[in-house]
Amino acid sequence: MLLQSIFAFCAIIGFSIIIEAPKKCLFVNGVLGMVGWSIYLYIERCTSVLMATFVSGLVLAIISHILARIIKTPVTTTLIPAILTIVPGAGMYKTVYYLFTADTQQAISSLITTIGAAGAIAIAIFIVDAVVAVIKKIGIRGDRN
């Protein structure tokens, strides 16, 4: 688990360099990627892939919002590289592989799991964004009174 987390750190820094993320975000993105992957691996041991993906996405979205305000950068500069480690790319690969090998049952199973994982990430990000929007709205009203 430790070795995989270190590789996740390095991979996310490399990805951040490729997409030309701000230099002040490189280390932060690497740490977020490592944290997200570690959470995913830990929770997957106890529950399902979908729950691990959801919880990891939720934690990454929360931390990304916090860190984006601390380092004064858009949330997307930290969130997009961070979630890369939990995006179900291997699931899509397996789906296509099973389609090419004419294993329709496995292809459908893999596709459902992959769509579920992608949906879990999207729902986690949506929940955090909605909560942040409500907090901002309440904060703005509170300043006026």
Shape, please? globular
H and E string:
HHHHHH
Q: In percent, how helical is the residue content?
A: over 70%
Question: Unreliable runs, pLDDT <50, ≥5 residues?
Answer: none
Mean pLDDT: 92
Q: In total, how many domains does the architecture comprise?
A: 1
Radius of gyration: 17 Å
Strand content: under 5%
- Biggest pleated sheet: none
The structural class is: mainly alpha
Distance between the termini: 50 Å
Number of strands: 0
The number of helical elements comes to 6
Offer a concise description of the structure.
This protein is mainly alpha-helical and about 140 residues long.
Description:
The chain has helices at residues 2-18, 26-46, 49-70, 76-83, 89-100, 104-144. Helix 1 (2-18) runs antiparallel to helix 2 and helix 3 (49-70) packs parallel to helix 6. Helix content is 83%, strand content 0%. The chain is mostly helical and 145 residues long. It has one domain (2-144). It is built from six helices and no strands.
What's the layout of helices and strands?
Blueprint: H1 2-18, H2 26-46, H3 49-70, H4 76-83, H5 89-100, H6 104-144
Helix pairs in contact: 1-2, 2-3, 2-4, 3-4, 3-6, 5-6
